[in-house]
Amino acid sequence: MGGGNREFRITRSGQLIHIETLADERTPGNLSEFWKERGTDQPILLQIHGGDFSRFYEKAGVIRRLLIRRLLRKCALIVVPSDSWKNAFSTIVRDERIRVLPEGADAISDARFEELKPLRRQRMQILFDGVIGEDSGSYDLPQIIVHTAQCVPDVRFVLAGNGDIDGVRAMIPEPYVSRNVLFSGDPEQEGRTWLLERSCIYLQPSYHGDVPGAVLEAMGYGLAVVATGVGEIGEIVRDNYNGYLPEPGDVGGITSRLTELLNDPETLFLAGENSLSIVRSRYSREQYESGLQKYMRSLAT
User: Helices 265-282 and 251-262: crossing angle, nearest 10°?
Assistant: First the structure.
């Protein structure tokens, strides 16, 4: 979820080359292969959409770090999604070549938000999406599901994404796995919209910063958020305003926050309204597109 695959995408616009990527251990190889094939002096705007800087650079060997610095010097401009990413990249790239551009998301109307309230109150649905594995906190989900369902028997968890689905399913005891959990796989946009409109809480128990686009997409649909405050998530979600930010691995804290929201519709929907307000004020699609065009024009002149 969250706007499509941005692991590595190249777009040519006039004389400008726009590369979008996640920063992880695969990125240097992708960039190196691109430069072997391109054979041109067109200016390059490299846009980082998130990922894991420690895997991308800090945990790389000496030779790999040298390669990364050499590859980044070839870029005319590097665009990152937050101040924390700028601080990370400023250790290997000069500040004047780094720009901050927060991700953008669409926001549903106030009228649509009000229309969805009865459906969301009835379904009591919590949405998790992402790669199902250790880094995303997926192996904490079985305990979170069981403990939350013991307090709110009608709760429904939707686990959307690919990865170790069988491993997580095997960790959830019956009757919870059949009564309280739906594994949806990685849906197309129509399926994403269906899930977002019927969910009331977005859950992200990650252990490291990842892509903020999925969180913003959920906020744009007016969902309260319970997420560990790692990476950019801690900059987007405001604790006790549009959700809560427990520590990674704090299963008890995550469960208590989910239960609190499900048992208090007024607080739940106020958090959803606040999510919409945050997206509209700082993370709108229009602000994102305008900022990106400004940086692209600066390289085209």
Answer: 100
Q: Enter the pTM of the model.
A: 0.88
92, HSE (Cβ side, Cα atoms, 13 Å): 21
Q: pLDDT tens digits, residue range 245-271?
A: 999 999 999 999 999 999 999 999 999
Amino acid letter, 17: I
Which tokens is 53 given? 């800087």
The answer for residues whose C-beta is within 8 angstroms of residue 73's C-beta and 6 or more apart is 93
CA distances from 36 to 22, 28, 33, 229 (A): 20, 12, 5, 38
Separation between Cα atoms, residue 79 and residue 104, nearest integer Å:
14
